Amino acid sequence: MNIWKGDLWKQADTERKWALALAAGVLLLGGLTLGPALFPSPRVPTLTRQMLPPIAAAPSADPPVYPRTASVQPLISGRLNLNTASTEQLEALPKVGPSMAALIVAARPLRSLADLDAIKGVGESTLKALTPLVSF
């Protein structure tokens, strides 16, 4: 009977060891998981310096001038006067479609870029594209 009690004791002792090892593993894993959240390490930003490419010269502000012939008359050549241009000529401008041309015609007389900017639908990029191509 002593042998049986000894085997049970050894088996119970082994199970306790495994339970203890399992509990220790769970606690260790929990600590490793929650540790960075509870004790964050301070982060210092790193500065990097990069050389920028040289600035290219600005493109010419002169509008394109197209040759005219007896049979070919370009819609726009040089600066286009927004107060006298037809809707077809206005539509030939970049970023101007039929509805924008109708809004420009309805807003006449235009005296400056501020008047053109006041038209709904004319934004910064449209103004930038139209500035070298139009006159008032």
UniProtKB/TrEMBL annotation:
SUPFAM superfamilies: RuvA domain 2-like (SSF47781). The chain crosses the membrane at residues 18-39. It holds the Pfam family HHH_3. Gene3D superfamilies: Photosystem II 12 kDa extrinsic protein (1.10.150.320). GO terms for biological process: protein secretion by the type II secretion system. This is Competence protein ComEA. Keywords: Membrane, Transmembrane, Transmembrane helix. One of its GO terms (cellular component) is type II protein secretion system complex. It comes from the Bacteria.
